[in-house]
Every structure is written in structure tokens, then in C-alpha cells.
Amino acid sequence: MAEIVIIVGLVATVTAVSAMARRLGILAPILLVLVGIVASYIPGVPSIQLHPDLVLMGFLPLLLYAAAIETSVPAFRLELRAILLLSVGLVLVTAICVGVILHEVVPGLPLSAAFALGAVVAPPDAVAATAIARRVGLPRRMVTILEGESLVNDATALVTLRVAVAAALGETVTATEIAFDALLAVVGGIGIGLVVAWGVAQMHRRITDPLIGNAVSLLTPFVAYLPAELIDSSGVVAVVVCGLYLGHHWSSLTSATSRLQMSAVWQMTRFLLEGVVFLLVGLQLREIISNLTIPTSTLISATAAVVGTVLVVRFVVVYSATYLMRLVPWKQDSVPPLSIPTVIGWAGMRGVVTLAAAFTLPVAEADGPFPYRSLLIWLAFAVIAATLVLQGSTLPTVIRWAKVPPDDPRQDALAEAVIQHEARQAALLRLDEVAGDAPTVVVEQLRQAVEKQANHAWERLGRPRQENPSNAYRRLRREMLQAEREVFLRAHAQGRIPESVLHRVQREMDLREALLYREEGER
């Protein structure tokens, strides 16, 4: 019973805080972390311990898969060099720098344990990046780089963490073993991800019930993640590869009804899981602080050193990779403005995966390899708080200050209008081929519908002083649907139609109205 009350309380808090954040114009993840921190000190609020398996095997596969299926494969491939540099090179450099500096700052801390903390705090979090990057108006290319980095870097960090923990426990770790572990993580993850994606694709092609399709979709990330972890491969890579493959082929695998329902299911899943994750991060503070036993001076110096190193190293690597790599003679890429690497450098938010990885560190024993485990967990939390609250809250300001050129909506509308024209021609040609003996009035209605849809994009290119036809159509059609809805509600109240008829008609009207909002770009 207590667990049910806690779950309901978490979901209710996430809903209320998210609504408040939207009203106040604050990013919901930041406010949720702050509310969690405050709530952890309120008497009567139960202590909720964040179990690493819940995050790494429960939340993470779902959130990675939800982000991967929405990631553009062509865009991901185009930015692959930058993504790999950040998700592999930056993670390793950060882990090494944090480890070396922390070993110097904290007397007695083994270098291997310091490297373990470096691996924990090195990767920006997929949840944080996805939850914030899209909401602050970043251009699509930068969003692709940040999301791609956060989708892949967990694999690098977890492999590095595994090696560092083994070394701290006294196990002999050779360069050959490290290379084998890395190769197994990548190759095994890619292989399992592709096999699962192929199998799931075959299932989706044969499933006609949207509810069954939704269930299969929700199970897919676990089917990819768990086998990969069982063979000591990378479940993260497996889920990402599986999600990218299925997302790229989604339109050919499922029906329109299934896609609409799946979209709604995944939106709700992401909303609740992301919210609960950030709230849980904040709720850990009281217990983390209660376990600290080291001197305050050491705590302050270690915190400042780790947070500062994480922030500085990211900027150094991003700037170096952006400009120094272009000095190589065979690199002919155009040099981006300073604003691009500046914003990418400032967008390295950490999240719940960092904290969950810290909790996986072995429990300290007498004179054991992790006598500073409580300090390492605190440092992981401090990095999360500093990057998420400081960087996340100021990222919109940094974007405005850096004058990052946004995506041009007119260019998007022009490209859409051109493709709409080609699509219109293809649709009319297909109509002529298959019309046969269909009633003339039906064929004419279909022609008009295609013409109206094709004209929407062209109307977006202009900024008329008066209401354009498409906007007028949507506004008036919504009023008409509301009038129809009221008639059916009155008829049901009078007993003229049964409940089943009312539900069916209301669903049809809701779908028509949802399409109107979708055309208008509303949510």
C-alpha cells in the first residue's frame, strides 16, 4: 500500500510541477529537481532511495528508445563525426581529467576510484539533453548533435566505469581486455539491436490491432537492452540502434491508426518518466548529505574541482574539435561561427544516469577500495545540480547572447510547398489510375481536398494582414464540430442514442478536431 501511495504521489507531483513550470515559463526538469530537493527535507515525506537497477534497466531503455525513434537517421549520419567525438572522445578525456584532479585534491583516494567517478560524471544525460534542448529553441542541427551525443555516450561511460571499478577492486586489467570489452560493447550492441529491430519490424507488419502494436512497442526497448547486458555488451547501443532502425522505417511498418496511438502513448510515457526521474534526483539530497563524513574543507575543494573540471574540459574539447580539426589540410568543412561551439559547450547537462551509475559503486568496506563512496556519490549529485540548474536555466540566455541563428521557418515552408506540389501531382495521377467507375462527385471532392492540402504550405510563406483561407477554415470547422458535439450530447441525455454510439461519434469528432490542431501546429 505504501508503494502505491508513493507512486501516486510522484505522478501527482510531476503533473502539478510541470503545469506550474509551464505557467511560470520555467523549464520543468529544473523545477522538478528543485522541488525534489526541498521535499527531501520536509518532515513526513518518505525517503525514496534511487535504486540503480530501476534507472539503468527500467527507465533508461524506455527513454533512450523514445528519443531514438524520433531521431532522424539521415541527420544522425550527417553529424556522425561530431557525435562520435563528443560521445567517445569527450567522455574519455573528461573521465581522465576528473580522475587525475580529484586524486590530487582528495588525499588517500585511489586513482582508480577517482577514474570511476570521472566515468560517472563524464556523459551528459540523454534525458536531460532531450528534455531541455528541444524546449529552448536550438536549431535542428545542434539538437541532433546533442541528442546523438547523449544517446551514445552512456555506452562509453559505462564501459569505462566497469574497467575503473575492476581496477579499484584489485583486478588486473590489461589493454587487451579493455579493447575487448569496448569491442564487445559496440559490436554486440549493434548486432543485438539490429536483430531485435528486424524481428520487431516483422511483427509490426503483421499486427493489425493498434493496442497490440502499442504493447509490442513498449516491450521493444527491454527486448533489446536485456540480452545485450546479459552478454556484457552495451544495452544502450542495442536500444539506440533498434530505435533508429524502427523509427526510420516506421511509416512502412504500421498503420496510420497505430502510429497515432503510439505517438500518444510514447508522449505520455516520456512525460511521466522524465518528470519522475528529475523529481527522484532531487529527493536523494538529504540521504546523500547524511552519509557524508569527510571534512567540510575537503568536501568544498573536491566539489569545486570536479564541477569546474567537467565544465572547462567540455569547452576545451568542443572548441578544439571545432576549429583545430579544420586546420588539417584535407578537411574542407566551413568554419562555424563561435556561437555554435559555445552553446554546445554550455549544453552538457547531466541527469539521473549519472546518479544511478554512482550508486553502482561498491559499498565501502574496512580499508576497502571505496572508502570515499559517499563523497563520490555527493560529487555526482553536485555535478548534476550544477549542470542541470546552472546550465539548463541559463541556456536560453546563452543562446540569445550568442545570437545562434534559428531555423528559418520560411525555408521550411518553401521546402514543404515544393514537395507538396510534387505529392499533389502524384496523388492526382494515382487518382486517375484507380478512379474507375467511382462517382464523379467523389472524385471531384478528392481533387479539392488534395488542392486544399497543397495550398496550406504556400499560405505559410506569406504574412497576410487578413486571416488566410486555411486558418479561417480551421477556426470555422472547430466551431461546427462543437455544435455537432452538443447535439449528440443532448440526444444522449434525452435517451435517443445509446452510450456506445455517443462514444464512437465523439471519437470520430475528436480525431477530426485533432487533425485541425495538427495542421495548425498547435499542441
Note the topology:
Layout: H1 2-24, H2 28-39, H3 52-68, H4 73-78, H5 80-105, H6 111-121, H7 126-133, H8 140-168, H9 175-206, H10 210-230, H11 235-248, H12 250-253, H13 256-283, H14 285-290, H15 296-324, H16 339-346, H17 352-359, H18 373-402, H19 409-434, H20 440-461, H21 469-493, H22 499-520
Number of helices: 22
Q: Tally the beta strands.
A: 0
Per the CATH scheme, the topology name of the largest domain is Na+/H+ antiporter like fold
The proportion of strand residues reads: under 5%
Q: Give the overall pLDDT as a whole number.
A: 80
User: How would you classify the helix and strand content by structural class?
Assistant: mainly alpha
What is the name of the CATH class of the largest domain?
A: Mainly Alpha
The amount of helix comes to over 70%
- Identify the CATH architecture of the largest domain: Up-down Bundle
Tally of separate domains: 2
Low-confidence stretches: none
Helix/strand order, N-terminal first: HHHHHHHHHHHHHHHHHHHHHH
Assign an overall shape.
globular
Q: Which sheet architecture does the biggest sheet show? A: none
Question: Can you put this structure into words, describing what you see?
Answer:
- By secondary structure, the chain is mainly α.
- It folds into 2 domains: 34-191 and 278-402, Na+/H+ antiporter like fold (Up-down Bundle); 409-520, no CATH class.
- Helix content is 78%, strand content 0%.
- It has 22 helices and no strands.
- Helix 3 (52-68) packs parallel to helix 11, helix 3 (52-68) runs antiparallel to helix 13 and helix 9 runs antiparallel to helix 10.
- It is globular, with a radius of gyration of 26 Å.
- The model has no long low-confidence stretch (mean pLDDT 80).
